[in-house]
Structure formats: C-alpha cells, structure tokens
Design the sequence.
C-alpha cells in the first residue's frame, strides 16, 4: 500500500508506512525522502539543523513517528485516506513576517517562465492578487 | 487598469507583479487576461472592482508579469484573505504596506442580490476609493520612504497579522484538499476546503478555491445562498475592509 505525504512543496509516495490513529510511522529512508529530515545518531537532521528525537518517536523497527515530530515542530498534520498533509508552523511564519522583509517566492507566468520576487530587488514592487473573475 | 498605471510609473521605478490565485490553472487565467474582447466580462465585475467604463474599455493585456499561484502560496505568505489585495515592497525588499484591499469599498454589501447590479452611488464611491489608492501609490513611487503612505516598520508590524494555529491548520486542510482534487477526489477536496473555511471564516480564498474547483463556476461571482449567508454572518465587519490610507507623517 502506498501512502502520499505532502510536506513543504514535496509530494512523495512512500511504501511500507504504518498508520496508528492520527500517527504516521515511516521508515527512516521514507522519512528522509518525504520531509528531508534524516535520522542520524544525534537526532533528526536537515541541513545544519538537528532535532533531538524523543524515545517515543522511533519504534523497535526503526520507524519514525512523523506526526509526533511534526507536532513537536508546531506543524499541523491532517490526513484523509492514504494522503497525509503536514502544514507549516505558525510561530515560524510569524517570525518571518515580523522582520517586515517581504517573503520571497517563485511562480510561473502564463508562458511557464519562472519569476522570483527577489529578481526585482532595487525597484519598488506593487504586488497584487486577483481571482479568476 | 493596472496596465495604464504601469505605463505611467514604470519609468519612475515601479514594477507591478500580479498574482492570480487560481486553482484552476493557467488556462483559466489566460482566458481572463487574454480575453479577445474584454467587454465580454460582466459590467457588474467592473463595477465591483471600481473600474470606470473608460478604463475598462481601454484595458490592454498586461506587459508586467502575471503569475499563476495555484496553491495560494502568496496568500499564505502575505496573509491575503481576499482579492484584490495589494502589498507595497520597497527597493530593499522591505514591506512598506502589508496586504490590504487594493482601493475597493465594501461593494458586496451594496450589490442587489436579485439583479446583481450596483447602485450608481456605490459605483462612484468605488471609483473614488480606487483613485485615492492609486494616488497614494503614485506618491510613494515619487517620494519613496518620505511618502506619508510608506509605513514605518512598527506600523507594518502592527498591521500584519501573523497566522495563528487555526490559520496554519486551515492552510494544511486546503493543501490536502487541493491534492485530493488533483487526484480526482472532488468530494474529498470539498470536505477539506469546507473545514479550512470553518477554521478560518475570515479567509475568502478558501471559499473561492472550493468554488473555482467546480469548472462550470469559473469566471462567475459566487452568488450561492451560502455565499450571502457567509457575508451576512460578518455582521458589521466589512467583506472588503477598506485600506487605511491616513498619512503616517
């Protein structure tokens, strides 16, 4: 059975996941593929960041409790059928906004060409949103 | 409308970036932007946006970037809860006006729900709100940080509401909902957008997204009874809170 994990911009199909209620347990390689967080001796690590794992997050088979880890990080987890979505931490988002620095993003235009907000540094930018009507 | 402003202010150093919150994708947005006859779009929408008939008639396809944001990333990053909303960003990449209604009045409250027409007085008020907003933008382009409409960091922070737990949970439901829609599970998608709307009643983006994911409704104003019920449920709270353009210095 395949489970789909939505994490940041990643959509990853993983095999061999185990579900217990609201908890999704992933093998370490699946965890790394789905989230970028690798299980190392010192904890779950991504880039320079390491989070010490709680003893209850890793079971006897070495599976990692993604729900417990995400909850610890302040990230909401919702699931429906085989699809699991992990959201962003409100605290991280608020800290970013409080810098008053405009968060960067990259999106395609109608021709599929990618534009980054930071490409326009040095100019004033009026960023506006609209809907399809 | 914005194309005319762009042509006027580009030389003075203004870039415009339009972001379409459209879960229906490029085709739907393209049909709107590159519509061969812009006049085919309903007058009521022009009125709602505060566009004068002259500007509406002159509307040319934009030459500034029009980006497609199917996942409403920019809405989440900048706390945009409706459209149209604008953010002003200076040369250093600093926000000088956080997300606010881009020169609209609370038009939805003036709309005749039977005929979907706006009274003339509301159309005029909308046009003048739009002009006041554009004049403020012109002032900022000309005077930069000395403009009374460029807000100092403390005021930007005060006006920016960072997300709370309900908002990030709602965003997660919306993310799952979009995935389910993409997989062809429309009922599942609707379920999670409904949950996102329930958690975050201030966000019209979630209501709109669940609507635009219904192909036959694309390009229409949502006039379902649920929409009006939601507008009524706001009580005295505006659907489009007007931008606070009082000068700061």
Sequence:
């Amino acid at each position: 059975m395949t489970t789909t994990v939505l994490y940041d911009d990643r959509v990853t199909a993983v095999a061999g996941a185990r579900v217990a209620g609201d908890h999704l347990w992933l093998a370490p390689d699946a965890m790394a593929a789905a989230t970028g967080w690798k299980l190392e001796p010192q904890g779950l690590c991504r880039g320079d960041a390491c989070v010490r794992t709680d003893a209850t997050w890793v079971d006897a088979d070495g599976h990692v409790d993604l729900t417990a880890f995400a909850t610890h990080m302040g990230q909401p987890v919702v699931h429906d059928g085989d699809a699991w979505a992990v959201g962003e931490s409100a605290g991280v988002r608020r800290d970013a906004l409080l810098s008053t620095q405009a968060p960067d993003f990259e999106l395609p235009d109608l021709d599929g060409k990618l534009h980054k907000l930071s490409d326009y540094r040095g100019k004033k930018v009026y960023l506006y949103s609209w809907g399809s009507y | 409308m914005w194309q005319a402003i762009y042509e006027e202010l580009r030389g003075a150093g203004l870039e415009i970036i339009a972001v379409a919150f459209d879960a229906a994708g490029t085709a739907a947005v393209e049909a709107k932007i590159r519509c061969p006859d812009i006049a085919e779009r309903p007058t009521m929408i022009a009125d709602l946006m505060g566009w004068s008939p002259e500007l509406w008639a002159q509307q040319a396809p934009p030459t500034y970037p029009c980006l497609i944001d199917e996942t409403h990333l920019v809405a989440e990053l900048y706390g945009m809860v409706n459209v149209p909303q604008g953010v002003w960003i200076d040369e250093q990449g600093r926000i000088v006006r956080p997300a606010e209604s881009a020169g609209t009045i609370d038009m939805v409250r003036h709309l005749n729900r039977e005929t979907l027409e706006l009274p003339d007085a509301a159309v005029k008020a909308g046009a003048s709100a739009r002009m006041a907003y554009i004049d403020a933008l012109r002032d900022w382009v000309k005077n930069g940080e000395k403009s009374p409409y460029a807000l100092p960091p403390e005021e930007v922070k005060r006006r920016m509401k960072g997300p709370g737990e309900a908002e990030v949970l709602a965003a997660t439901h919306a993310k799952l909902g979009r995935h389910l829609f993409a997989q062809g599970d429309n009922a599942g998608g609707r379920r999670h957008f409904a949950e996102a709307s329930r958690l975050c009643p201030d966000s019209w983006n979630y209501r709109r997204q669940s609507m635009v994911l219904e192909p036959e409704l694309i390009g229409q104003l949502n006039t379902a009874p649920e929409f009006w019920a939601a507008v009524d449920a706001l009580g005295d709270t505006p659907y489009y809170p007007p931008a606070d353009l009082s000068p700061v210095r």
About this structure: Residues 165-232 of chain B form one domain. The beta strands of chain B are 14-20, 66-68, 85-89, 95-101. Chain B touches chain A through 80 residues (CB under 8 Å). Residues 138 and 218 of chain B are 33 Å apart (CA to CA).
